[in-house]
């Protein structure tokens, strides 16, 4: 198994066209000593320049910091090429293999053709990888590496990982700009960037899962959120509005190309925008939906929402049945079981349910976020902003169309459209993160943005001071600048020494068993050999050796899920003849058994892979504990355990050709 051991010796503009729209949000950067237009313009330019420079520095420094951690953790520059490739674990290795495949092709056109007509990712099948997977970024990067004059200075792997770490600079800069736009001061952007770094464990995992799809997609998602935030500001000039729309289009397009889960994110954003528009909290033309008294409007909204949901479900089912689409059925089975709509014995659904990444957000996450004061700040800002949003929504729903709130006797609480959008964003994605831990990386970076912008915003401090009858412009300015500054000083004092220790801690990649396995495969098996095994391991086999696979970790295809379940019978209680028939039906020449899977202890009973297979096959699980009453004792022992005994029934079908402390490789007999 792979391990890490100690080495042996050796972070937009604050001035917008709608500045006059929010008299309480005038920032000190725009309040100049002289009232002259020239002096004010000069101050704006200086502030914009300083803020932009800090954004650039924050982004670059974060990128360098994460890249250094990656290097220090693996000693990436010193290990062998095969060790570098093995460090791209599970699906990361699969994605990187296509970048490698494109570079090894005689020409770019031939490499492109190889991806469109691929017969090595899934044995006995020819698939269009560009259609199946989100690997356009690997294609683009391989083309750039071929075209740019960098081959003498950068190895392909470094060109790849440096691009990913470079995108982190874009990511942090986008978070910085969003916070700046919301608050009117780049101090908020600096605080958001600092929180992103000090909460690195919960905001990103790029340093140890470099090729993961989210590391490509989330920087563009952050750019899209910044562009939407700017677009929602009222009184934009036509040119600014068009540029914002262009930024939204481009960032959304790239985001959708680079991540297979983009549709869920887009759905949440659409729901948020629909809710805000329905509550008159976005600058939009009046609709019939927004007329009438409170009860009438609530009824129209509910009916409209019901019609949309029913129509969506109907069209979805009709489309899938017409085109025989089953790629997402495992997601609905997983969601049904996860939220308590009945237990399931479905292997695919249980495979997700038993993974920690798809479980609820652990409570210790809030402890870590509280250590940096991020969670406390977020709860404070969320409480004030949500209260203002409820007051504005109730006023909008209760008032008559076209009637000013002052005339209706309503309160003077207000909430800018861009603030309302980001409030809805953090609430919706917060619920998503709470329900599924893997999705926390969509929420926690925005947590930094929302908390930082709120602490620096007049929309938060102004109402509080008015409620306490302490409001003066000077007091508000003192609070919105002193509180963030104190938090920044606290973060530096508390976390700077630890970050320096991290940068000085040198470790080394160490996985000799996997290296030995890959070297053996390359040296002792034909290039056309087909390998069966666990999804995670086979991704490494393809990357390191180029051999053909029976299955792989990109699980969004119904045919692949069926293949994986068939291959995984090597860890179930099945006779050797059935296992051999299943593997040979997929064209397998070799099968790799892993002790860490066969004798798994990482998961609790009921969530071990062998338990999931036993339940799916109707068999009683191993070990002490309860079983469902209709499960029966298996008629055969567990294959992965029994094959090691070299009994005649097994040796005539499976010949051991390699073994070490972790892996056992068997060659399948062609004629049973």
Automatic annotation (TrEMBL):
Chain intervals with Basic residues compositional bias: 1-10
Pfam families per the UniProt record, alphabetical: Dpy19
Keywords: Glycosyltransferase, Membrane, Transferase, Transmembrane, Transmembrane helix
Highest taxon listed in the record's lineage: Eukaryota
Topology term for the membrane: Multi-pass membrane protein
Entry's Gene Ontology cellular component terms: nuclear inner membrane
Record region (Disordered): 1-36
GO molecular function: mannosyltransferase activity
Residue ranges of the TM segments: 45-67, 180-198, 243-261, 297-315, 373-394, 443-465, 477-496
Record's subcellular location: Membrane
PANTHER family with a match to the protein in the record: C-MANNOSYLTRANSFERASE DPY19L3-RELATED, DPY-19-LIKE 1, LIKE (H. SAPIENS)
Record family assignment: Belongs to the dpy-19 family.
Protein name stated in the entry: Probable C-mannosyltransferase DPY19L3 isoform X3
